[in-house]
Amino acid sequence: MASFDISQARARFPALKQDQVYLGNAGATYKTSKASIAAYANAYEGAAKFINASLSEVCSLRSGANQICLGVSTTQLLHNLPTALQSQPGDELVLSKLNHEADTAPWARIAERLGLKVKWWSATDPQNPVCDLDELQELLSEKTRLVACPHVSNVTGTITRVKEIATLVHRYPRALLCVDGVALAPHREVDVKDIGVDFYVFSWYKVYGPHIAQLYASSRIHDQISSLGHFFKGAETLDSKLNLASASYEATQSTPAVVEYLGANPTTTWDKIVSHEGGLQRIRLDFLNSEGRITVYGERSASTELRVPVVSFTVPGTRSQRVVVEVESRSSFGFRSGPMYSYRLVDEIIGLKDVEDGVVRISMLHYNTEEEIRGLVGVLKEVINSLPGESQ
Ligand SMILES: Cc1ncc(COP(=O)(O)O)c(C=O)c1O
Q1: Which terminus of the chain is less hemmed in, N or C, by CB atoms within 10 Å?
Q2: Any idea what DSSP says for residue 30?
Q3: What is the DSSP annotation of 195-211?
Q4: Band of the pLDDT at 391, cuts 50, 70, 90?
Q5: C-alpha 182 – ligand 1 centre gap (Å)
Q6: d(CA 41, CA 301)
Q7: Average model confidence (pLDDT) for the chain?
Q8: Ligand 1 centre and the CA of 24: distance in Å?
Q9: Which ligand 1 atom is nearest residue 72's CA?
Q10: Is any atom of ligand 1 closer than 6 Å to the C-beta of 154?
């Protein structure tokens, strides 16, 4: 039998080309590397910086980023949170019907398990559903423990006034605000201190990075979060409380790169991004609003104060899926149709008969060009004109 070729094996592990001798594989093949520990801490700091979370100097664990937790997805992080958040009998949870299901299901489930009351925060206008402050005010009480809403609906693209909502929610002694920032974070600078939220979550894989997600919790309420970690582990940071093992060492390395991509003055870069995306969304909305056969959902205005470049619509009488297929058959534009995991919004508020078929959603990013969007408008025109108006 040929002997094991150790030099060939070692050649496949580039990290071995240094002085440190790795004898910690039972922990992890590379984790003992000082370089990888430092890179992981640096990634957390990049991630915290991205949303203006505080870096604590006294925190000795992993990094100073003690207000954030990284995990595989927003859905997973939002499942961990309700299990860890302390509650008491009689607590009420106010859940927006505009939520992606990721910010509804875990709260509804814990409410059912613990006998807490769910109050649904609905919306009245089926074409332009919003998280309305007056409607929220009606639902809040001394018993409110949590309000969960999106910063932007991933269907309508409309921006929620979360700063004002945070102020309103915090008038109640135990009430906390959990904001799903997944649909906003690719398009706007996020400053968790400025908006004053208690929890903020978003997915890096929509913010130009790999498939990881991030949860922030204000230090002010860390003592209200129990640790999901083993009893002998420390619970000084949000990560040590909510992250059941570690985030992906490999994937987290992207966060400093995204921060760097935004340049030395991220606010200036964001301003340019907002202005560029605003121009693109104007071209697209001008067309959609002018086309009588299309129903647009969300703000019809292209104002960047009101919306991000995520636009959904239906062509009444035609299946949304058909619109997508027709566009794809004539061009290389790629987008999707469906309820977009915002089933309650599409079903109960927008009121589509065929919820599974859902809406056509076109979402752009700053890398899209004016030429692309003008081309898209041309193809959409052609498709709409060709549709016979079949029944749904
Ligand atoms: C608004 C919104 N929230 C939550 C999620 C879920 O994110 P994840 O896939 O990271 O669980 C999505 C995913 O599309 C989303 O659009």
Answers
A1: N
A2: T
A3: HT-SEEEEEGGGTTS-S
A4: very low
A5: 6
A6: 42
A7: 94
A8: 36
A9: 10
A10: yes
Q: Tokens 């749904």 map to which residue?
A: 392
CATH class of 266-386: alpha beta
Over 60: is that where the pLDDT of 80 sits?
yes
For 237, other C-beta atoms within 10 Å of its C-beta total 26
Which residues does residue 213 pair with via DSSP β-bridges, in sequence order?
A: 71, 203
Residue spans per domain, the chain: 35-262, 266-386
Do 189 and 92 touch, CB atoms closer than 8 A? no
User: How distant, in Å, are the alpha carbons of 4, 43, 202 from that of 235?
Assistant: 44, 20, 23
206 lines ligand 1 (CB under 6 A): no
Pocket test for ligand 1, best of 182, 190, 312, 344 (most atoms within 8 A of CB): 182
pLDDT per position as a tens digit, 237-296: 999 999 988 889 899 999 999 999 999 999 999 999 999 999 999 999 999 999 999 999
What is the second-level CATH architecture of the domain 35-262? 3-Layer(aba) Sandwich (3.40)
Name the residue at shortest CA distance from atom 9 of ligand 1. 73
Q: Is the CB of 74 under 6 A from ligand 1?
A: yes
Spatial separation of the C-alpha atoms in residues 270 and 55, rounded to whole Å: 22
pLDDT-derived band at 389 (thresholds 50, 70, 90) equals: low
pLDDT band at 63 (very low <50, low <70, confident <90, very high): low
Does residue 61 carry a pLDDT above 50?
Answer: no
